[in-house]
Amino acid sequence: SGFAYYQSGRKAICLSAHGRDPQGKVRRFGAIVHGDAARSPILGSFDEWGRGSAEGLLSQGDTSPPKIMIGESSVTIIDGSGRAREVPLGGSPSTKTSTTPPQIA
To answer: What's the mean pLDDT when you consider all of the chain?
Structure first.
């Protein structure tokens, strides 16, 4: 377990490690990703199974921050205009799109 920091001294990532294999090596990691701003806003989080979400920064013309969500069976990428694209894990990309972004829990 540990932290990584931005050059500003603010925390960037908090990593939590747990679960050991027969050789004593850590098997699972969870992470919280923080922004480099006052009060360290949370930009993303991932559990020990690699599932979670992260939010990007607004670009010119975006109506919302881009997002990526990693689930059990797919990755959903939401662009700055709110269009979503789902990519199955272990398969080929689909072109499933939506005008309404899914809610991030």
So the answer is: 85
